[in-house]
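User: Could you check the structure of this?
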Amino acid sequence: MDSLLDLFHLPIADPVLIFSMVLLIILFSPIIFDRLHIPHIVGLILAGVILGPHAFHVLDHDASFTLFGQVGILYIMFLAGIEMDMNDFRRNRLKSTVFGLFTFAVPMLLGILTGFGLIYLIYTQTVGGEAVEWLRGADNRQAFMRYCGLSSVLLASMYASNTLLAYPIVARFGVTRKRSVNITVGGTMITTILSLLTLAIVIECAKGELSPNFWLWFALKTAVFGLVLFWLYPMVARRFFKRYSDPITQYIFVLAMVFLAAFIAKLTGFEYIIGAFLAGITLNSLVPKQSPLMHNINFVGNAIFIPFFLISVGMIVDFRLILSSWITVFTGLVMTLVATLSKYLAAVATRKTFKMSRNEGMMLFGLSNAQAAATLAAVVIGYNIVVGHTATGHPIRMLSEEILNGTIIMILFTCTISSVVTERASRRLAIDDSEDRGRLYVPEFRMLLPLSDTNTMPQLMELSFMMRSKRESQPIYVLHVADMNSHDDRAVIQSEKLLEKAKSLGNGADAKVKKIVRYDLNTASGIFNVVREKNISMVILGIHHPANPSDNLLGPTTESVIRSTNRMVCIYNPAQPLATIKRMVVFVPENAEYESGFRKWVQRVATLARQIEAGLDFYCNKASVPRIKNAVYRLRIGLRPRFFEKTNWDDAAEFSKRIKTNDLLVFVTARKTSMSYTPMLERLSQNIRQLYGTQQSYLILYPEQFKEGEIDRTEDPNKII
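Assistant: Sure, the predicted structure tokens are below.
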């Protein structure tokens, strides 16, 4: 009985019960606080306050919460880096830089101006009459002014830094790729680095160790850190992803890389969060946004690590200590006011500078207002530095105990304000986005993947995920065609397993997949009939591997599908994972812009390039450039393709010299009698086979051509056996 009572003794000590309690908090907090119209993030923080050691003490803030809390904040910074749209970031890098400087300079200015008075007030109120007596000495006054100056700068750097605590809200509303979000994330990187650099300089000044050697050593460590992160990391990651395709193995690898980067950042002199954020930036192009790996990253972070961090933040709040002194409450309110006002002014200045909308301005403010990780690190470091003692031995700390406790008040209020403002701004931006899409007619785009080989199925599914926009609601159709004259039940069972595996891959990538098993005369006729029945827009097929070198690269089934339908057909040879592709090279025939499916194939190619963060080069005739450029820019996805004039399509060997291992080649071809057809295209598949074989990733793309009923069907698919 005693052992049973010990299990329920407060605070809970049993690790299984602790973890169960945390999971229940994560489960029910959003449900309860949704009814109260309080953001989930604030709800989890308040749950930590209520159940933490300074309230009902149901849970103790032990080493497990410290560990998972640290993991959570690093995960938030990593997510911010890996979900950033690098195309938009490059396009908005000036805006991000300006916002980063605004959101650093304004808090620094206000913080230094108000810091002198606040620190003087705290000192005189806490030390008492002794402080006045001590300050009568000229040397003491000079020392005190130096102390106030350094402490004010350190306090101001706390205001300048911010944590992307509300980023999960942005992700939940699906507006992570909005311009204002990218600007805020980029600006956060700048202001956090500047704030932590300021912290390092102030500490060295307080110790009296700021010398040329400090700057030389700091520059050397930073250079090594940059070399490891921006050169060694991508090289190692690309090789790993080429060799291992299992999403779980890839996830463990990514997680290890993130925390190793955080540790290296700490060795360099930065904080852990800088390393985690830059690791996200480095791995950004290697983790496609609609891949199973990205789904795993988001799922684990939002389900476990980030909620743990939010609960741990709430558990450090001690209202009894805070409310025990009016000077502590006053300090916390002043700090909250200065931090919030300075971030708001920085957001307004950025919004007016670049003529952004009010909702975008509120997003800038809401997402950048939360104070947590870097702020806590700075205040703890400042509190532990003793710069002197009074006549009675009272320690004079760089940041006093009142500022330490006031920081907790500031964190609670700024996190609440940040969550509320970000949620409102995200909702309004999402509504504006849906209204914009509603004004534009976007026809339903349906993909069909005929599957028969378990070896190529994952690669074909990956391509379908990458060529599909998140806005599209139609499922991906996966098809297996069975011989209607066959009575082999084992073949049917195997096909069901294959399609079920394809569906599970779709679930892992957060994509809807619909299975179809069709009995028909042959594979080609089955595909053709499903295309008509389901109004399919594009068929994705694997490349044919002929046993005889003289055989056609496409194969009889693919050729029959191409001849029998006017819809887009994509034939894929996957030599390496799409995430490791650096550049897409698209070869466009003359007059391709006049085909009926021109915009459709441009959209799919551009979407693929954006999803895998690859460069996009077009080789085409000069007359095609304006039409292709206009089609890409109208998508508003931030791509800036390059164009190269190509007139001699017969010289394939010349082009092969410009192709690199990590390129994805896209050959846009044409059916006979179409406007862009040339006799040269008859030799295309043979040239591809001779020059690239199976060692290079490439797509052979037959765009939608002819109107319905005008298709040049030279052969009935039902006759192909």
